[in-house]
Design goal:
This protein is of the alpha+beta class. About 25% of the residues lie in helices and about 35% in strands. The protein is globular and about 80 Å long. Bound molecules: guanosine-5'-triphosphate. The site of guanosine-5'-triphosphate (GTP) has 19 residues, from helix 1. Belongs to the TRAFAC class translation factor GTPase superfamily. Classic translation factor GTPase family. LepA subfamily.
Length: about 600
């Protein structure tokens, strides 16, 4: 296909504004798949993605479209992940296309992710077509929302498409707008050396690693020998093709086209998003700009509640890692928790997704230890150590000083919630760098320690702003600060899984809060249980969980045997999710809940 007849685009939207429904409509109305194969939602395939309303794996589809002018066009829609943890992946996929449909629910208006996503599109120099969805709803106010788009985002919304992805109204206008208002690929020379962007990759049990590519220059053919310019890895190409949305082989992929390749690539780890693919011989000289390898920034321990499930956990983790290059793991042993894994993630949501998948798809109950960032420890003997796990904190007498990672956080929030956001950032040791306005929204920039953000910052931000804040961050570097390791002792036994690194000035407050929380989370036993927070052997906070007086079943007056049995069964089931520490049983959810700050 010549460049003039190709349109590559993404759909950007806030959760639930109708991105998937619109994508399905575009596919259906162009007969890309038969009615019979049309499932309710084609693009988001994984259950967890759907439940959490996020898209993890970028999917793509090639649509043939005959426009009103009678010309045949090839439209490539790429699907992008929608969360800050995957911000780099989103920014890369945006670079692989030239335009975006900005979908806004006409009954809701512009929301947090609308902004975050549309700014990524603007940064990638996209042409943007506003699409107001759900006009079938009585509460739809397309005029007001169009005005809001102009005010807040600053793009012209006077000729926005008014559609209902549900009923199909307006879909032909969207297709025409894609062809008429989005630009064709900007450049592309068939005769130049091959230059292709690695947009995404995933593991397929039949084909091995599948790589999604956008060809910039040159031509990719089956049988070609290719080279990844950043990693230096070389492969023979077995297959090339496009998604319709099922895989369809093609003879070649030329400039401007988006498609997939497979080769003898063993693991997704060898295919780095943003890498440049060229031919092994007569390759292009310079790789595409902007590549950065995505490295895990948050670490935590994952342990099976039932130690007999360790091998199952290993199996689950290995399988998940096959398909997720940014997830790392190594074996870990803990005095209290036994055998498990120390895992690295791109961020907290990434952690939660992996944890949920292990629990749900592999049916393994997990204990998750406190998430930690990587600290740089400068020892008195002049050496430098990277600390991934607070449990490994060396003896303080040998430590000279410690540095922690910092981020630059950008938060967009409606004016009425600004006060709460500033307080939250201040509470998390943030330093305000900027405060400006975009329409009725404030944009604040904070320099924050990453360790204050990894735990529940995002949850808190969403809750204090009722979901209206958008948040994005970048790592900026390391800075020295006064951090200490705080241990938690339950019945005088240290529970390593609850150890955290905290700022010295905030240790008492955090310690008190954790002890209070644990007092509520740990069920009462037949004896008194002291719960303490300590720094280097010195207790800084303490709570006491009083002893249980009677057996729970005593309440049942002996008479009702079935009720008694039920109660005992319930206790037993509850126990499955408990873990024994010395004489004390601690429920699984205590490990995460204790760390949340209200
Ligand atoms: P995520 O994949 O979770 O990010 O959401 P999404 O933006 O893809 O939204 P999705 O297409 O899943 O739609 C969200 C909900 O809105 C679904 O229940 C749809 O049926 C509904 N919906 C989508 N378009 C329309 C529309 O035009 N009118 C009405 N009434 N409902 C719609």
């Amino acid at each position: 296909t010549d460049l003039a007849h190709i349109r590559n685009f993404a759909i950007v939207a806030h959760i639930d504004h109708g991105k998937s429904t619109l994508a399905d409509r575009l596919i259906q109305s162009t007969n890309t798949v038969s009615e019979r194969d049309m499932k309710a939602q084609l693009l988001d395939s994984m259950d967890i993605e759907r439940e959490r309303g996020i898209t993890i794996k970028a999917n793509t589809v090639r649509i043939d479209y005959v426009a009103k002018d009678g010309e045949h066009y090839v439209l490539n829609l790429i699907d992008t992940p929608g969360h800050v943890d995957f911000a780099y992946e989103v920014s890369r996929s945006m670079r692989a296309v030239e335009g975006s449909l900005l979908v806004v629910d006409a009954s809701q208006g512009v929301e947090a992710q609308t902004l975050a996503n549309v700014y990524t599109a603007i940064e990638a120099d996209h042409e943007i077509v506003p699409v107001l969805n759900k006009v079938d709803l009585p509460a739809a106010e397309p005029e007001r929302v169009a005005e809001q788009i102009e005010d807040v985002i600053g793009i012209d919304a006077s000729d926005a498409c008014l559609i209902s992805a549900k009923t199909g109204v307006g879909i032909p206008d969207v297709l025409e707008a894609i062809v008429k208002r989005l630009p064709p690929p900007h450049s592309g020379d068939r005769n130049a050396p091959l230059k292709a962007m690695l947009v995404d990759s995933w593991y397929d049990s039949y084909l091995g690693v599948v790589v999604l590519v956008r060809i910039m220059d040159g031509v990719l053919k089956k049988g070609d020998n290719i080279k990844m310019m950043q990693t230096g890895a070389k492969y023979g190409v077995d297959r090339i093709g496009v998604f319709r949305p099922a895989m369809q082989p093609v003879d070649e992929l030329g400039p401007g086209e988006i498609g997939f390749l497979t080769g003898s690539i063993k693991q997704v780890r060898d295919t780095k998003v943003g890498d440049t693919i060229t031919h092994e011989k007569k390759g292009c000289e310079k790789p595409l700009p902007g590549f950065k390898p995505s490295v895990p920034v948050v670490f935590c321990g994952l342990f099976p509640v039932d130690s007999a499930e360790f091998e199952d956990l290993r199996d689950a983790i290995e399988k998940l890692a096959l398909n997720d290059a940014s997830f790392s793991f190594e074996m870990e042993t803990s005095a209290a928790l036994g055998f498990g894994f120390r895992c690295g993630f791109l961020g907290l949501l990434h952690l939660e997704v992996i944890r949920d998948r292990i629990e749900r798809e592999y049916d393994i109950d997990l204990i998750t230890t406190a998430p930690s960032v990587i600290y740089h420890i400068f020892m008195k003997d002049g050496t430098k150590v990277e600390l991934h796990n607070p449990a490994d904190m060396p003896d303080l007498s040998k430590v000279d000083h410690l540095e922690e990672p910092r981020i630059k956080a950008t938060i967009l929030v409606p004016d009425e919630y600004l006060g709460d956001v500033l307080k939250l950032c201040q509470d998390r040791r943030g330093i305000q760098e900027d405060l400006t306005y975009a329409g009725s929204r404030a944009m604040v920039v904070y320099d924050l320690p990453l360790n204050e953000v990894v735990f529940d910052f995002y949850d808190r931000l969403k809750s204090v702003t009722k979901g209206y804040a958008s948040f994005d961050y970048q790592m900026t570097g390391y800075r020295e600060d006064h951090l200490v390791k705080m241990q938690i002792l339950v019945n005088d036994e240290p529970v390593d899984a609850l150890s955290t690194m905290v700022h010295r000035d905030r240790a008492e407050m955090r310690g008190r809060a954790m002890c209070e929380k644990l007092k509520d989370l740990i069920p009462r036993h037949m004896f008194k249980i002291p719960i303490q927070a300590a720094i280097g052997g010195k207790v800084i906070a303490r709570e006491t969980l009083s002893a249980l007086r009677k057996d729970v079943t005593a309440k049942c007056y002996g008479g009702d045997a079935t009720r008694k049995k039920k109660l005992l069964e319930k206790q037993k089931a509850g126990k499955k999710k408990m873990r024994q520490f010395g004489k004390v049983e601690i429920p699984q959810e205590a490990f995460i809940s204790a760390l949340k700050m209200d």
